[in-house]
Design a protein that fits this description.
single chain, about 60 residues
């Protein structure tokens, strides 16, 4: 019986580590998406500014 409990504890610990790993991966993916959106917005803003300056001869 003790061996069964020990095996269940090992499997549970492994499942928890796997779950934590998946959560960390999802968090990194979400951060990457947010950073991509930020840089896309920044690039668009800079492009508009450069266009404005070129047209108005800043």
């Amino acid at each position: 019986m003790s061996n069964v409990v020990s095996e269940i504890e090992k499997q549970l610990a492994e499942a928890i580590r796997h779950q934590e790993s998946l959560q960390e991966k999802l968090l990194k993916e979400e951060r990457t998406k947010e950073a991509g959106k930020f840089f896309e917005s920044l690039t668009a803003g800079l492009t508009k500014y450069i266009d404005f300056c070129l047209n108005k001869r800043c």
